[in-house]
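sorry to bug you again but im stuck and you know this stuff better than me. what follows is a protein written twice so to speak, once as letters and once as structure tokens for the fold. id like you to explain what the token line says about the fold, in plain words if possible. anything you notice is useful, everything is just below.
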Amino acid sequence: MYLLTAINHFNNTTFNSTIDTGLHRKLLHSNHAREVQPNRIWGDKCSKSDIVINQGPTDPLPSGIPTYSVEIMNVCTTGCDISAIHLRCGWFSSARLINPHLFKRLRYNDCLVNNGNPLVNGHTLSFQYANTFRYPLSVSSVIC
């Protein structure tokens, strides 16, 4: 368990979040800063912007294939659990087996997170994949 301090790129505020993890990893890159979401409408329970995706390189496989670590976090400020998280993922594939209950490609540009089950507020789901290049991953839809 460690304490993560993150900066909200939209209003330069800082928040702390405790994340459970057994892995020691390098700083991961976030796609969240590139994708600007509209402000939450008063009364909305959650939005796509409450799911933050970070990924970065890790040690390659013995065969030399690059490996990437992915973290998918629920940072909902209203305490919501978010389910049916779908990501834009292109033709995502991996030379390293990924538990399909955590992450699986359903069809082109549609990957399902956590088998559609809720990602509890404040929790992080993580996995590693291996491919010759990094896949850009971004949230396409969620259910609050």
User: Anything to note?
Assistant: Residues 1-38 have pLDDT under 50 and may be disordered.
